[in-house]
Model the fold of this input.
Amino acid sequence: MEYKGLGVTQRIAIGKVFRIVDAAPFDSNADSPQENEPKPGVFSPEREKEKLTAALEKSRRQIQDILQKMQAADPGNKNAGIIATQLGYFEDPAYNEDTIALIDGQGLSAVEAVRRMTRELCDTFNSFDDDPYMQGRSSDIADAGKRILNNLTGKITEIPQPLPSGTVIVAHDLIPSQTAQLDQEHVLGMVTETGNITSHTAIMARSMDIAAVVGCPDLMGEARDGDRIIVDAGKGLVLLRPDDAQIETYTGLQAEEEAARNTGETVKYHRIRRSNGREVLVAANIGNLRDARFAKEKGANGIGLFRTEFLFLGRSEMPDEHEQYEAYRQTAELFGKEPVSIRTLDVGGDKMLPYLRLPPEENPFLGMRAIRLCLRNPDIFRVQLRAILRASVYGNLRIMFPMICTREELKEAREILGECMSALTGAGIPFRKDIAVGMMIETPAAAIQAREFAKEVDFFSIGTNDLTQYTLAADRGNPLISGLYDGMNPAVQYLIKYSIEAARSTGIPSCLCGELAGDPRAIPVLAEYGLDEFSVAIDAIAGTKRILLSLDGFKTACLYY
Ligand code: PEP
Ligand code: MG
Done:
């Protein structure tokens, strides 16, 4: 039997049906008394309110539990944010005061009050006919509502663990907190009767890179547990109980798809995952918009380092806020959801700006460089921070401070950033208030304090070009001591490993954006330390991916999208 829906990914799955049956549908018309509902004559609003409070609390704990597990497996898990939004719903007045008002004012049971509240909120979001984003949010509310209902009625539909291998989940609707429990080792695909491609469940399926089709009606009535099923997500096609010829055809197609993923030709388009599910990004180092376009073409999973000083060099005056904003905005748009780390101005050392008229220094690499220069010249710094903040609404920008040595420097930089945010808010100019703020670990002082710094930033980016020269007291540009200048030196390696571990144990992602990230000697070692993001020169993207994919415990998660 053939069913047609909306394909969410490009994958093919051949597996066996496992049905998830909704325990307490909030959108059913079941107005008849339910289990655990009060019998007529013994209705007690106080008792119903107590039940509601307990169910909200239980729901909150369950979601926190799911979140903790997700973050333990992968601190950078983008899906965690989707699940976390639900905590907000449990505290939302709609579920508290308004639901209580329905119990008190209309004599509804807790179950009926939550059901009505959820239905009304979902209807409101669904009424944005031409806005799939708002409709997608309706499924978050449905998710929260169903969880509360399930906890009220005691009929919780958690996904059994572990699922049989080769499973294809079939459900009327799969809510994000259920999708979060699907383990990628055993689940090959999922098909739901409802949902659209922007729903969070679809977004999560995409990031898990399983064969997923949503909006495929009437399947639940026909499918039985253990039925053979083929999901061709690229075509949005589902074949229930396929015959032998169909299985043979699809086995061939699946092998072709697999081969395409693994040929050297397409390696640049691969996204990489560790066997524990954590994604490893291979991002690019760039200096301008042209590089950004090239990096995208070469398969970069984001930008790990935008050396913004290249926008400032080779000219007679500073780029103004608008010019900087345009460069950051267009890069952000180009990479969409992929992270783009904009490093704030790193001049000084070997990169001088004649129009700044700085006095000559005896040891410029140990002098007025990078963050030191910006903190001394807050007007220059503010222009750049404003440009980054304004561009932040167009993608997934991150701010990264270079050459941090002391916690005071970080604090001061953050204060100036805070002032820029307040000024933009005051002027009604939009920006992402939750923009990630990270720092480079490129001085021994920063690496040695990595555990403390990790608590104060959203990510680390290890700059081994400088970390090597400062650790070994070996000028990175001096050919006379080039033998000594080596990022594989045990002292440098110790600091790198320590910083990655500090990030991991604090739950923030670690990136490495020095040249070492693309060095074939270093890649397996950095992978072993647990590095999350390799940011390399554009022409090293494919090679770095190829080496990572050759390591034990690394595999292609999905083709680049
Ligand atoms: C580094 O120091 O490793 C780094 C990436 O920064 P830059 O090379 O621009 O100093
Ligand atoms: Mg550096």
